[in-house]
Specification:
Blueprint (H helix, E strand, L loop, with lengths): L1 H10 L6 H13 L7 H18 L5 H15 L5 H31 L7 E4 L4 H12 L5 E5 L6 H11 L4 E4 L4 H7 L4 E4 L3 E2 L5 E4 L2 H10 L3 E5 L41 E4 L6 E4 L2 E3 L4 H8 L1 H4 L3
Parallel strand pairs: 1-2, 1-4, 2-3, 4-7, 7-9
Antiparallel strand pairs: 5-6, 6-8, 9-10
Helix pairs in contact: 1-2, 1-3, 2-4, 2-5, 3-4, 5-6
């Protein structure tokens, strides 16, 4: 079953990146909308949605995608089985297409923030940030990028490889060198992706992001997050905090290598809104204080439950 495979792939990070995870979940649920009765399909969608949500608790794009499908299912529960399948398939595909288009829109907007000879620092791997930098480079702007390696999974290597392939001058550094390089290399701005944006403007992203944001504030460097609106958390409006995912210790060190050692492997951290200069979304640039308004405009159907 596609749902089971998708859950495994998300857990094992064969599918990574908040938007890719959301799209994979949408495709899996789209494959579940055909059945003998509308009621049976909706029951199965709820079961599948619960499994998918548990696969990656920190990436809010995943529950947002699942909840939107369940919202559509409830809205169309009065349709015949055949009409339900057709309507749901079309609506889910439209939503998938909108999410894909959001990256290109963000790239268009964000490329305007890049200036000639800029030095950009980024952390982890974000398809959105890579698209933004490629777009700026394709428009003839010449700049350089510093990538953190992003332990323990080394997602920064993916970013570095993509940028080098695009012809962008790129330097890879260890995570702990970020502040030094921001100062000595005269970084102009930090641009990262994001896994979750809370209603108060806090950013949840790959572990280490908050330390970089703190250094950026100290050094008077713009800290920017390029994120799709599906990553804004309606759950946080109701006071529910996003759960930080802790991953297996073997990603950090081989089991038993140091007997008696305790290892913690948090995958994400929280960057306070006051350390963030702006979010670039497909709907434009907003300050952290604008997160709640975006949530009201984009997730009104879900916020009504709070």
């Amino acid at each position: 079953m596609l749902v089971n495979k998708t859950v495994r792939d998300i857990k094992d990070m064969r599918i990574r990146g908040a938007l890719d995870i959301a799209i994979a979940a949408l495709r899996a649920m789209k494959g579940e909308v055909d059945g003998k009765s509308t009621a049976a399909v909706i029951k199965n969608l709820k079961k599948s949605g619960k499994m998918l949500k548990a696969a990656r608790p920190t990436a809010v794009s995943l529950p947002n995608a699942v909840d939107y499908v369940l919202y559509l299912a409830g809205k169309n529960r009065g349709l015949s089985s055949k009409e339900f399948t057709r309507t749901m398939s079309e609506a889910i595909q439209k939503f998938i297409d909108e999410q894909k288009d959001s990256i290109e829109k963000i790239a268009d907007i964000g490329a305007n923030l890049i200036n000639r000879d800029d030095v950009i620092l980024t952390h982890c791997n974000s398809d959105t940030v890579v698209a933004l930098l490629r777009r700026a480079w394709g428009e003839g702007k010449r700049f350089s990028v510093i990538c953190t390696e992003t332990r323990p999974r080394f997602q920064g290597h993916l970013t570095a490889r993509a940028l080098v392939k695009a012809g962008i001058p790129t330097t890879l550094i260890v995570d702990s060198a970020a502040r030094l390089m921001m100062k000595e290399s005269r970084v102009d701005r930090v641009i990262v992706g994001g896994d979750t944006i809370c209603a108060n403007g806090d950013l949840i992203n790959k572990i280490g992001t908050s330390q970089i944001a703190g250094a950026a504030k100290e050094l008077d460097i713009d800290f920017i997050s390029a994120v799709e609106s599906i990553k804004f958390s309606p759950q946080s409006v109701g006071g529910e905090m996003v759960k930080i995912e802790y991953r297996d210790a073997k990603e950090v060190i081989s089991p038993g290598k140091i007997k008696g050692l305790r290892v913690l492997n948090p995958a994400f951290d929280i960057t306070p809104a006051e350390l963030i200069d702006m979010f670039i979304t497909e709907d434009g640039i907003i300050p952290p204080q604008g997160a709640y308004q975006l949530l009201r405009e984009k997730f009104g159907w879900e916020l009504s439950s709070f």
